[in-house]
Every structure is written in structure tokens, then in C-alpha cells.
Amino acid sequence: MSSILTNTSAMVALQTLKSVNSNLNKTQEEISTGKSVATAKDNSAVWAISKVMESDVKGFKGISESLSLGESTVAVARNASETVTDLLTEIKGKIVAAQEENVDRAKIQTDISALRDQITSVVSAAQFNGLNLVQGTDDVNVLSSLDRASNGTVTASNITVARQDLTTSSGVYGSGASLATNITAGAASIDSTGAANSVALTYANTSGADSLELTINGSTITVAFDTDAATMIDNAEGQINALGLTGISASSNGSGVLTLTNTNSFDEFTVGWNSGGTDTIAMTNNGTGDSAVAATGSDSTTLTYRAEEVALSTSATVNEGDSYRISVNGNDYDYIAGKGETMEDVARGLKTAVDAGGETGVTTQVTGNATDGWKVLVDYDGTDATAGATMTLADNGQAGGTASGGLFGLDNIDVTTDTGADSALDNVETLIQNSIDAAASFGSAQGRIETQSNFIDSLVDSLKAGIGTLVDANMEEASAKLQALQVQQQLATQSLSIANQAPQSILSLFR
């Protein structure tokens, strides 16, 4: 049945043409935008995922800029630390030259002062965009990543760069909790004559078959029996003094008692003895705090050094701001620990502080290890008449201070005297090690930042590729589809034209 009111063929052709035109428009949009998913209506799920990933790419680009800024800042600090190390090495060369007595120490001190001023200038100028990593102790965080969890939560990650204080600041002594139990000074005073550390050997009841063998730090003498014990001990005295051991002297009281005395500031000596017969040797150790003991036949003892000991705890943790003090003849010398320091650092800092005080006749040394404990040895040679015959030594400690600089003591290096030149040689090694540690720390941080920066760049490329896989149009497929749809459009148009002409054939029935 034909109808002039309803043309089903035309309706079918029209619907087909609409569908073809819709597909053709979509394909033309893909070609013009380059995306198969350009808006949420194209594919809401894929579009949402792509937008999240695009926001992450934007964030990682910002992180890349942050890492570049951080790397540049750390690079400046590393270069400054390396420069300071080189300058300190030059200072060490000057200090070594000052060990000779026939040099112009005043001119050497002038050179050292110039190098010291240059170090101060380098440390002050080592900033990037106003941030100086070689001053102060506060850590600096460099934004390094944005971590997205499976539930969509985003957290920021940082690379922490530890500041390395290379200033010469003496710090501020704390006013917090007492740390007095972490530091203990030795005896209150030392005999200025150096007679404190000695051992007395009494040799009696000898016979012609007896002999005495004495060993002092590996040097051995053997004394045969003479006419009596007193003469035998007199012979031993002569042989010991003939050894020429620095700081070790022997004396006889003429009645068979041999006294060995150690006047060395920091050197200990082991004394061993052995009786060649069956007689008893009575030994009295006159060292501070020791009591008389008896030895039958053979034994040994230690002649301790003259210096007093300031012992530091083997178990206490060192925190930033922990303040320790040694008082010498009423003068306080402080060191305030920085972040990450140990008791060894405290010991060397206290030594530097005392050396900088210019106490006449006072010399220092650091000894010990992490297991047995670190000690600061303080010696007074008793040659300063104005200071009296003894040296008073006290200790104290409190938390809550402001840390001393890593180059603490540099300002007080003075090689114009024998004592100053000796102490400077030891102290400059500590300063060089501090600057080397600082440079190594910055180098490690810079390497980590550089690695993270390279990773972020690669990650951004991967994210971009992933987004492209989700939303980018396949241009080869789109072009082929476009040509096919254009053909379909032409055919649909022709089909609609034919369908529209069908009702005209009915007119022939009315002719």
C-alpha cells in the first residue's frame, strides 16, 4: 500500500543519514582535537582518570622546579664547604710551618688570619635565594614527590637536607636540665713539682745470689747484688736515668728504696719488676687515689700521666644544645653540641675551648674511644708563678643551649707561641674533618636530589604517555573512518532523495 501521508522509506533514510552525520561529526572532532575522549560526555570514566593524571603531571612539573631550586641551593653549600676545606688545609700548612722555632711566627699568624677571614667571607656568601645551608642547624626540606594512595589520598614527600654550621660561633650555654652526671673531672689539684705519679720499690734482705730486673715501657735493666741493698738500688738508679726516658726519673734514698717518677703531661709508662731471688719487694704506688700494695717476687704497675682527666659518659645521648663546661682556675670554657654530634665531638670541642682560653702553662689532649669513653686531659706545668702552685679543675653540664659552630675555635688559633702552635696543629685537624663531613653530607644530598629530579622527569613522560593512550585519537583509524562516513553520507543522501521521489509515482494513477 502506498501512502502520500506516511513515507516510511524516507523516514528510514533520514534516520540513517542522521546517524551517519553524527558519526561523521564525532570523527571530524577527533581529527581536529586529536582526542578520542575530549569531554566527559565522550567517556566519563576515562575522562575522569585522564584529568586526575593531568593534575598529577602539573604537580610533578612544580616538583621538578622545586628540586631544581633545591639542587642549586645544595650545590652552593657543597662548593662552599669544599672551599672552606681547601682554605683550612692551607691554614694547616701554615701551622705545620710554625712548629719550627726559627721561623717568623708573627708573619705566619698574619697569613692564618687572612685565610680565616676568607673562610668567614665564604660562609657568609654561600646562600642561594637567601637560603644559607652552612649557617645554623635547622634542617631544610625539599619537596620531592606527591604520593597518591589507592583511595585517592595525596601526601607530599620531602628530601631533608641537614644544615652544616661552618661558622665560628661559640654558642650559648644552656639553662635546662642538669647534665652534670655526664661529665666528671679528676683530682682537684696537681702537685706543680710533678711528684704525684710515682712508685717506690723497697728491696731488702738481699744476698749475693739475688738480682733485680726492671722493665720500663720495654726498656729493661738488670742489677746484680752489690755489697748491700742500698748500693744495689743506687746502681739501679744510675742505669734507669741513663736510659734517657723523657719525663721518667729514678731516685734513691740511700736505704734501699727506689722511687720512679713520671712527669709527662699525657704519656703513661708501664713499670715491671722481678726479683732474681726469693726475697720480697715492697711496692708503694704514690699515684693519686692509690694505696700501698705488696708484691712478692715480681709485679707491675702504671705510672700515670700528670694531666687531670675530664671523663665523658659512655652511655649518655648527645642532643643539640647540650652544654658542657670545664672550669680551669675559675675560668669557664664551654662547648655546646650541635645536631647529630657525639661525645667525641664534645671532647674535642672542650679541648678547643680550653686551648682558646690562653691559660699560661695549660695544655690539653683528647683520648679514648666510643667504647671506653672519651676524656679531655688538662695539664698544668706549674711554671706560671702568678697562677700559684696548683690548678683547680671543675666540670658542669646543662641542656637547652644554642649549638657552637662547626668551626668553633678557628678565631682563636694563635701560632705565635710554642703552646699555641702545638694546640693549633691538633685543633685544625678537627676543623678540617668538620668541613669535610659537611661537604660529604651536601654531596650526598645533592646526588639524591639529582636522582629524584631525573626520576620525576621520567615519571612525567610516562604519565603523559599513559594519558595519551587513554584519550588520544588514532589518526590512521580516524582518517579511514572519515572517508567511509563521507561515502555513507553521500549514499544516505541519495537514498533519502529516492525515498522522497516515491510518492510522485502515485500521480501517474490519476492521469
Summarize this entry quickly:
By secondary structure, this protein is an alpha+beta fold.
Reconstruct the topology from this structure:
Layout: H1 8-33, H2 44-97, H3 105-125, E1 127-128, E2 131-132, E3 140-148, E4 154-161, E5 183-185, E6 198-203, E7 211-216, E8 219-224, H4 229-242, E9 248-252, E10 257-262, E11 269-275, E12 281-285, E13 293-295, E14 298-303, E15 308-312, E16 323-328, E17 331-336, H5 343-356, E18 362-369, E19 373-380, E20 393-398, H6 418-471, H7 475-501
Antiparallel strand pairs: 1-2, 3-4, 5-15, 6-10, 6-12, 7-8, 7-11, 9-10, 11-14, 12-13, 15-19, 16-17, 16-20, 18-19
Please tell me about this protein's structure.
With 511 residues, the chain is of the alpha+beta class. The chain has four domains: 8-34 and 473-510; 46-162 and 435-464, f41 fragment of flagellin, N-terminal domain, CATH 1.20.1330; 180-190 and 308-404, no CATH class; 198-303, no CATH class. Helix content is 41%, strand content 22%. It contains seven helices and 20 strands. The chain has a five-stranded antiparallel beta sheet with strand order 9-10-6-12-13, covered by helices on one side. The radius of gyration is 44 Å and the shape is rod-shaped. The two termini are 19 Å apart.
Sum up the structure in keywords:
20 strands; 4-stranded antiparallel sheet; 5-stranded antiparallel sheet; 511 residues; alpha+beta
